User: Fold these one by one.
Assistant:
Number 1:
Amino acid sequence: MSAHAEHNDLLGSLKCAAKTHPEHRTVIDLGGQHIGGDARTVIAGPCSVESEAQIHAIAEQVAAAGATILRGGVYKPRTSPYAFQGLGAEGLGFLVQAAKEQGMLSITEVTCVSDVDRVASSVDILQVGSRNMHNYRLLQAVGKVKKPVFLKRGMAATYREFLLAAEYILSCGNPDVMLCERGIRTFEPYTRNTLDLAAVPVLQGLTHLPVFIDPSHGTGRRALVPSMAAAAMAAGADGLMIEVHTDPDDSISDSQQTVSTEAFAALMHDLSCWLPLDNMAGKASA
Ligand code: PEP
Ligand code: MN
């Protein structure tokens, strides 16, 4: 099949997610904060919520640097069943409170259908992680809630599979879906995953949904996060998700890819030419 025919064939299978004209872009309005369209959004915070003090300290720093959405996992999908699994409902409360205090929105991952209502009634945005991108019952469940969904690309998923996963959510009635490229599995072990930055123009050409980049999981190495964040912005990404900690080496999960709050502030300063002035005024340079 020619590249053009393949593009049209994929578009034809996307009843809700397909871009129907060049200016067709979803803008999600979260109480006045826009995601998609002309906005550029930075989501930041630790891999996991570890304690009330930890999430409050990080929230304060990432908000000061210009991030507007606070992340932090409380139901962690870990490779080992013996690794820290997250603080659960208690951590959810800590995350939401820390975000509120800084005037930020909050996002956390939901890993199973039975947790959807509880998570949806707490945070502003529900994350479906890479490992669950193919969990169609979960996709349908988050498709029925009235909160936006941040869908991460499966680590071995094609663009078609990724977009059809978004289609599951949209077709259940939830129009507010964001896509996030977070690296795919390749033969290269030096980086944890291979960050596929071509996903930005490819997906934006096929769908009206906002496209984010996660350079933290995408590389697995904190030294690579600033350059990949800048590259994502240059490629036209609608936003970034970055793991940040006040003491990255002490992070309970994903410490190697987590940047310090100072490194995050410097990175935000370097990105300021791409970020909206109302986010950044007096913050990144402070
Ligand atoms: C995360 O963002 O906390 C996470 C687990 O990421 P991913 O699903 O991309 O591995
Ligand atoms: Mn992580």
Number 2:
Amino acid sequence: MQKKTEKFYVTTPIYYPNSKPHLGTLYTTLLADIVARWNKLKNKNTFFLTGLDEHGQKMEEAANHAGKTFQEFADLMVPNFENVWKKFDLNYDKFIRTSSEEHKAGVKKLFEILLEKGDIYKSEYQGFYCTPCETFITQTDLLGDQLCPSCSTKVKTVSEESYFFKLSKYQDKLLNFYKNNPDFISPNSRMNEVISFVESGLKDLCVSRKSVKWGISMPKDPEHTIYVWGDALTNYISAIGFGSDQEKMQTFWPADLHIIGKDIVRFHAVFWPAFLMAADIELPKKLLVHGFILMGDSKMSKSKGNVISPLELASDYGVDQVRYYLARHIPVTQDGTFDFEELSNTINSDLANSLGNLLSRTLTLAKKNGIENLDSVLVKDQSCVQVENLWSEVFALFSNHMDKYEFHLALASLWKFIFKLNSFFQEKKPWVLAKNNADEFSQVIFVIAKSLCKIAHLLYPVMPEKALQILKSIGVNQIANLDSMNFSKFDFSSFDGSALFVRIENSKSEKDQVVDTKNKNSKDEKLKEEFLNFKDWLKVKIAVGQILSCDKVEKSEKLYKLEVDFGALGKRQVVSGIAKFRTSEQIVNLKCAFLINLEPRKIMGLESQAMILAAGSGSDKFSLTTFDNTDVQPGDILG
Ligand code: MSP
């Protein structure tokens, strides 16, 4: 084993475990896994960190809704993440939880330093707060009727004593840093956004919440809880020993790469470097900002109710197939729409037809013609030599794209080589050579086996399980470092002819198929016209809301004005024509179903921001869609 010379430290954001991970959150972690595996292949001493952001108001509210203590709720949610990450082979070196003692020690230490330095002072916060984003928002940033500019949820008004960090003091230092480190943020366009934000003038940052109890208390002032982002960002150093193991901290810090989504750039590109500057800690080397996974036109997110479960995808399509699809089809720095049909087509064409088929037809032909082992075959046939010579170019191109986090281009370049190998197989007609030119036959098989061996190495970061399966079927039992891939012995005896990838016969999602069956069988043309396709259905958002208050609308017989709690989605006003059917006392506290993305409309001068779902209104019979199960919480999405 060669000595590892360089280190590489890569991180993901730590996730809020108020809900289960979905394909969007899986995506961030997958990118980090690909980067970590790639650097391990390059023999770097790699450390890959992920974890959970357990504190803050959002988690407090989720725990209250679930009827659990904060810690119980966080503990309960952890396996949801660990199981999905494990299923998808996300091979992190450490899983940090912000409720752990080592993390708390790191946060306390950082805030002690900032306090001692005089960069934190006590004052009063007057403004707004968005709980889903855990962000302080100023009046000028608000959208429309007090909505968060990032997630459009109604913000809360906050007025409380708070500690502030002197962010404004770091404005020039930050601008200088960006100037001297133009590659700090990838892509470059994000860097420009950050620079113009900082240039527009930095205000001091509120870093404590008195009204939030679930978190880490401010040193020497336990009435104040450290703001969840101040707490969370520190994970990148607490996880590697800041506050507990200085030697480990020195091994891995500064981080080589923080991978983050485009919604959390400001926290990582402005606040985090400023905290580190204030504490005289070196800054991370790079931020890689990725786009969103979209469903239709909107971001996949729990609050929008359009999430895809990674576990269901894994069982329907296969783990490595999904990993490949995400890496191949979505350029990291752009948004990408998830599409079931595209996923199936990719599996069938790139994976089953091109790669899988090349492996199986080569090995099947070799075994059928008595070749089970090959050892250092002398390659002299011109076209075989030409294929061998292509490798250095393929490798250089692939590596270059991988080092720039252009996974889609790296894979595209590798697939060009796989297509080339398939044409080579067709042109050489090895099934004919097997009968009349045994020497050339073994050269062709050798060249393809050797190429597959190298391809499997390059594919390992994206498809670890399939890469190992390819290697096993050619008798290579261990993955090598990229600089020592000198394989010349192959053994096909364990290859049993089974396909590397199973073709997906029906190229639509199960949910789409349900709609299709209905379409086929229905004789009612009128109803057929009203069918929604699956994409339309994803646009419909029905959520559980708890009615907090109910007042008669003046001068109306049938209208109530309701205040309805949608949990993490905020509170809304709903005007509803149900006053003839229920008294106010009968409906206050009920949890009912509401359509929450109907365009808001004015009824008797009052804005209605959702529609209650009921049956039978208009007649004497009437029933609301209610939920009496305690597991159902305001804000839960139906579907
Ligand atoms: N807890 C903070 C991060 C603190 S890091 C010190 C947070 N958590 S989050 O769970 O809301 O989001 C974590 C990451 O998941 C973000 O980078 C976010 O961009 C990413 N994604 C959430 N939904 C996503 C998609 N639909 N697509 C791609 N990434 C998405 O923010």
Number 3:
Amino acid sequence: MPEILSSFAQENIKRAASLIRAGRLVAFPTETVYGLGADATSDTAVAKIFQAKNRPDFNPLIVHYHSRDAAFADVERNDIALTLARKFWPGSLTLVLKRKPDCRVSLLCSAGLDTLAVRVPDLADAREFIRQAGTPLAAPSANRSCGISPTSAEHVASSLDNNVELILDGGACKAGLESTVIGFFNSQPHILRHGAIAREKIEEELKLKLTDLTAVADNQAHHSPGQMLKHYAPDIPIRLNALHIKPGEALIAFGSNVPAGAEKTVNLSPSGDLAEAAANLFKTMHLLNSNKYEGIAVMPIPEYGLGIAINDRLRRASSTAV
Ligand code: TXA
Ligand code: MG
């Protein structure tokens, strides 16, 4: 099993940062999910991420910075990106922008594209770790490819096992859902992945409607290759919009009016709060991902605000496509 350091004490951050500089992998918390971090400027370190996750190498990675200025040193800014960065960084927004000619980040992180996905995480401890590492960190979610995203150090340890040497344990992730990914085509912003910042919040800030490319992304590797249809999948079937329980099923509930008869019920948010539901989603999927159950039934989740990202993850988890 990997070593877990259960605090962000200076000596622990120092140790983790020096492992990064030595080209090794360290899993660390962000406000969204745990990331599997490596020195983004080192081809060999980044390659280790793909190996550890068993991730197809056409799938690009998000690179994490300790500050806005550090991020914009590697990618071309535009007015809209700057507005979004000012409003939402540090925070759960990822911007896909053109690499600068002198971008230091390994081309492996871009997986053959001329763009790079960058973000500045909200969790202050994570930013301090990145600062002390002295290099941007490539960090996809710290789970085996196609698995459920990790929102605790235990999830990381059970998914990656010895494929990661060290885990910085920061407790449960606040948002519990990956960052929202925005890309630019013909200078216009598009949404590539629904995530922890609701689309409406971004549209409000920009005073324009975003084109939704999340569906296109399923089919065109070109836009957002990470959006594979079968993703986030547990090992047992998931059935969405369930109003009744079938024999042997566990239930992911939402709100009141919970149907009876499930082997086990976990309510994402009894009061119907979508942010609370988002924070509990992956944790609950981990908990119910057991062959003790015939499958997992999920009650309907409203399709607005963070509900859009939650439903997106659930649809991928329930997909039988590969
Ligand atoms: O919240 C998060 O974003 C977490 C934490 C650890 O920061 N990270 C994360 O990374 O979810 P990852 O690698 O699992 O997801 C990367 C997403 C994928 O959907 C991928 O296709 C998209 O970002 N992406 C990355 N680089 C891209 C690029 N150059 N063009 C288009 N999409 C890109
Ligand atoms: Mg992931």
